Amino acid sequence: MLSIGLGMWCGGGAFTDARVVPLLWQHRGGVVGSLSVVAEDARGLRVEGVVADFELARLVRSGAVAGLSVGYRATSVRQGVRRELLAVELMEVSLVAVPMQALARVEVVDIVA
């Protein structure tokens, strides 16, 4: 298993009420690990978890898979020139090969025995 710390930038306050959700691969299929921390900090959404799928853990450890993405439902928005998400319900976090948000990356990899 592999312990990971994940960070991603988002608008301030949108993820204030985030809770622990499933860790998936590419937003599809079964759960590939578990999250122990889901919180918003000064940089945005921060999650920490463990990748239980051996092959995926190997790819994350090698740096071949380093992207993150989140599935969410917008619960409060402000529509202007751009749509601003004020609050969201976090549904899942996924390890992905190519994240849409360039800053949504695996930041820390620790090997857990």
The 3D shape can be described as elongated
- The low-confidence runs, each spanning 5 or more residues with pLDDT under 50, are 1-5
* Percentage of β-strand residues: over 45%
Individual helix count? 1
Computed structural class: mainly beta
Along the chain, the helix and strand elements come as: EEEEHEEE
Helix proportion of residues, in percent? under 10%
- How many strands, what sense, and barrel or not for the largest sheet? 7 strands, mixed
Instruction: Return the average pLDDT rounded to an integer.
Output: 83
Q: What strand line-up does the widest sheet have?
A: 5-6-2-3-4-1-7
Q: Roughly how many Å apart are the termini?
A: 7 Å
Instruction: Please tally the β strands and state the result.
Output: 7
Kindly provide the radius of gyration, computed on alpha-carbon positions and rounded to a whole number of angstroms.
Answer: 14 Å
Oligomer: single chain
